[in-house]
Amino acid sequence: MSAIREAKHAVRVHRVYQAQSRRREVAWEAKQILSTATEEVDAASVAIRQMRDALAAEEQIVREAIGEAAAPSLAAIFQPVTSQYMLR
User: Which domain of life does the UniProt lineage start with (predicted)?
Assistant: First the structure.
């Protein structure tokens, strides 16, 4: 091989190596971005589940409070009716 051919071949090999190196670098960056995004989605999913559970607990507390508040009112409404039927 002549020196010119060797130089041209070396340039081609170098360009291929640079392209492969850049592709590896881009792939590594994409992998890092994807990994970070996956971690963030997982964390958001956990937070959503926790908020959903907390909301369900709060809803139950409110329902029980409404039920307790309504119970005396309902008892007062239905007690006279029940008493009237029991007396007859």
Answer: Eukaryota
**pLDDT at 86 > cutoff 60:** no
Percent of the chain with pLDDT over 90: 43
Whole-angstrom CA distances from 54 to 40, 45, 75 are 21, 14, 32
19-46 core/surface letters (b: 16 or more CB in 10 A; e: else): eeeeeeeeeeeeeeeeeeeeeeeeeeee
pTM for the complete prediction? 0.52
Can you give the three-state secondary structure of the chain, one letter per residue? CCHHHHHHHHHHHHHHHHHHHHHHHHHHHHHHHHHHHHHHHHHHHHHHHHHHHHHHHHHHHHHHHHHHHHHHHHHHHHHHHHHHHHHC
